[in-house]
Amino acid sequence: MEESQNNIENGIISDNYKGLLDNNHKEQWANNINGSRTPPQNMAASMVRKKSDPILVSNVRFQMLRSLLNNLQEVVLGTKLALLFPAIPLAIVADFYHFGRPWIFALSLLGLTPLAERVSFLTEQIAYFTGPTVGGLLNATCGNATEMIIALFALRQNKIDVVKYSLLGSILSNLLLVLGTSLLCGGLANLKKEQRYDRKQADVNSLLLLLGLLCHMLPLLFRYASGLNNPFATNTLQLSRISSIFMLIAYVAYIFFQLKTHRQFFESQEGDEDEEEEKPVIGFWSAFSWLVGMTIIIALLSEYVVGTIEAASNSWGISVTFISIILLPIVGNAAEHAGSIIFALKNKLDISLGVALGSASQISMFVVPLSVIVAWIMGVQMDLDFNLLETGSLAFTIIITAFTLQDGTSHYLKGVILFLCYIIIAACFFVDKIPMNETTVGNLGTVLEPSSGVLVA
């Protein structure tokens, strides 16, 4: 029995041990798994995972070697995105030998794709051992770890525009691209079925997004009301920092609402009862060690991305705005996007909505205000004023999404509308060639603010 417990800790759960479990143990394990409430982001990412064959490592004689091989099989080879892992050492080699900076940017971006999915997998594994509350908090914190790390490195290099654009792009991508393609594909695949979803979760996330939109709009409106002579006024910065604190408070209330008081709103996101029961495949400390290691690699690649984004922009002839708002979010969340579409094809819209709305709410109400607070600590003047064009795009995106989800039913036309909205916004930022941190003098002696179209007197 002691050897079997060690096997669980090391991530090796043999068929013999499963047979030793009595009914009480099985019931206790099932309660722990059901209580963890696997979030929709992790459920969507699980669609790109590959089931490993335990027979390949079960015949290894030494336990430590068997544990190591099992971890390598589950963590490195346990995803359909494993083909992109070679991009990680290639990016490091390219930086060490001073290859073209656009190549470093492209390889780093590709390397971040499987890492983002693996972080989701590892947090899910840890959640099996920590229980529902700690596991839920861990998933809520690490759900968009890639975006947070990129934002921190961009702040360290004082690239505030990259932070704002990348986080804005994540919100737009989740609400329009992910949700739109999911509703489109799901509607086409289920033409003869009525597609319905629980409105309660959609209403909660819509309220959070509207609160975040208010906090984004007030600094912009305040700047207009107080005059455009000083777009980075101290009062606007103070308002943004105060708003960020209250946004974080609202997000904490949302987590408490989701995990404690109103968990029934999110229970519909669970899979069907007849589906195979999920079990941990690696141990707690193994998952924790892998999580730390992959976070370090994500930090390294994020530094490469932030440091080479301007060079890639100049080389490819694409604005930094388009790369930050469109390309970064698509690549960073590719696994979740694919999983959301697959669940929509299976007519499981509650999970698809949980992926899109949950991730957008987390970016808007947690990552964005956290970036403002961290910038405040670092002495960087980052505010919530995302300029007119960006804030207007965000406002229309949230309003269109809220109208789309108001009746609790879905069809492919809704997906078409959301997807086309994303294409139009992407085209807008594609033609936006105004360099960041620069101003151009227009007619009548006015100054055009970069990337916003705001006329400054």
TrEMBL record:
One of its GO terms (biological process) is intracellular manganese ion homeostasis. It is found in: Vacuole membrane. It holds the Pfam family Na_Ca_ex. GO terms for cellular component: calcium:proton antiporter complex; plant-type vacuole membrane. It comes from the Eukaryota. The keyword Glycosyltransferase does not apply. It comes from Prunus avium (Cherry). Residues 103-259, 288-430 form the Sodium/calcium exchanger membrane region domain. Belongs to the Ca(2+):cation antiporter (CaCA) (TC 2.A.19) family. Cation/proton exchanger (CAX) subfamily. GO terms for molecular function: calcium:proton antiporter activity. It is a multi-pass membrane protein. This is Vacuolar cation/proton exchanger. Vacuolar cation/proton exchanger (CAX). Translocates Ca(2+) and other metal ions into vacuoles using the proton gradient formed by H(+)-ATPase and H(+)-pyrophosphatase. Keywords: Antiport, Calcium, Calcium transport, Ion transport, Membrane, Transmembrane, Transmembrane helix, Transport, Vacuole. Its main location: membrane. The chain crosses the membrane at residues 75-97, 103-122, 134-155, 167-191, 203-222, 242-259, 280-301, 313-332, 353-378, 412-432. The lineage of its organism: Eukaryota, Viridiplantae, Streptophyta, Embryophyta, Tracheophyta. Signal peptide: none annotated.
